[in-house]
Amino acid sequence: MTTLVTGATGFLGSAIARELLRDGRRVRVLLRPEADRRNLEGLDVELAFGDLRDRESLARALDGCPSLYHAAAYYSLWSRDRKTMYDINVEGTRNILQAAQDAGTPGIVYTSTVGCIGLLPDGTPADETTPFDTALLCNDYKRSKFQAEQVALEFARAGLPVKIVNPSAPVGPNDIKPTPTGQIVLDFLLGKMPAYIDTGLNLIDVRDCARGHLLAEAKGIPGERYILGNRNMSLKEILDTLAAITGLKAPGIRMPYAVAYAAGWVCEAISDWITRKPPAIPLGGVRMAAHHMYFTPAKAVEHLGLPQNRVEQALEDAVRWTRDHLISKN
Questions:
Q1: Are 213 and 170 in contact (CB under 8 A)?
Q2: C-alpha angle with apex 84: 77 to 141, nearest 5 degrees?
Q3: Total domain count for the chain?
Q4: Is 105 within the bounds of a domain?
Q5: What range does the domain containing 158 cover?
């Protein structure tokens, strides 16, 4: 059978496409004609040109596909065009799920984010039932993804068999943009992290995260959410692990949050009013870092069989790939 994957030119989406191909499935990918196709090089996939804002192109892309993995999103912690972010993340999700409903697609997996999961005040790992505080919606990306997840839940309540996965912070090879997690690896290797702030993330090997999507399709319950994560690590622990992998020195200065916030505010003001380019320190990212984003993947491990391979190996693979593809070629 043919599976349609949206977002397959990106970090996680391309990993999903690879996992599907490993399982012997035929893959069709939705992409815009001008999309960066480096993550599709060497993959035996069918190209379907379209746009999440173009409903007719979505109907064509879904034709003959009994399964859909909707992993596409406008992912940025700063954007000059906020309307486009909501058009793609929220209305685009509505469009692709409506197309799937019209086509009678029986297998649907929607990629949300742990940014839509609540956090516990004491920093202990949260799960899918943790109450969500909308005050955590500290940037347009998180707000748009929260609204998009609500759209997916609405379709599920109306009977569409959509399973929802909430990845934490995937790490590994092929992070071409890179994502914020990949940017940590790149900045560390380039010596651009003189200090760190007291925050934390849940990391997962991107290949395990991709496999979790396939497991959700096979074993998940429609309308249910599954956190696809692995290990909770403070930023200091992540940097110390990178130091052990590379032999480079980890930053030893802890920056007060107030200083990081002020720097983010200044950088974003310069971007908004002067350079019109992404800020060196996105204020939205600083606001996210005010919380330790710690989660438990116990539900996905128990009910789906989510793999939990060593995060250290994923970081080592990310370092190797980043050196070979993002540093040595520049």
A1: no
A2: 25
A3: 1
A4: yes
A5: 2-175+202-232+293-311
Domain of 51: which CATH number?
A: 3.40.50.720
- Segment 83-126, tens digit of pLDDT: 888 999 999 999 999 999 999 999 999 999 999 999 998 889 99
Q: CA torsion, points 176, 178, 181, 187, in degrees to nearest 10?
A: 110
Single-letter code of the amino acid located at 249 = K
Tokens of residue 323, six digits: 């050196």
- 3-state percent breakdown (helix, strand, coil) of the chain, nearest 5: 45, 15, 35
CA dist 291 and 116 (Å) reads 14
CA 27 to chain centre: 20
CA 142 vs CA 86, 128, 249, 284: distances in Å: 10, 17, 33, 9
The contacts of residue 217 (CB under 8 Å, 6+ apart) are 67, 69, 107, 108, 109, 163
Q: Is residue 270 part of a domain?
A: no
pTM of the model: 0.92
- Strand locations in 209-294, DSSP E? 225-228, 231-234, 253-254
Whether residue 318 lies inside any domain: the answer is no
Residue 26 inside a domain? The answer is yes
What is the rounded average pLDDT of the residues 283-311? 85
3-state DSSP assignment of residue 229: coil
CA quadruple 43, 48, 49, 55: dihedral sign: negative
Distance between CA atoms of residues 301 and 285, nearest Å = 29
229 in Cβ contact with 296 (< 8 Å) = yes
- Residue 26 is which amino acid? R
Contacts of residues 222-225 at CB distance under 8 Å and 24 or more positions apart, as own/partner, are: 222/156, 222/160, 222/161, 222/162, 222/163, 223/153, 223/156, 223/157, 223/162, 223/163, 223/164, 224/128, 224/163, 224/164, 225/112, 225/117, 225/128, 225/164, 225/165, 225/166
26-31/2-6 β-pairing: parallel
Strands 200-205 and 231-234: antiparallel
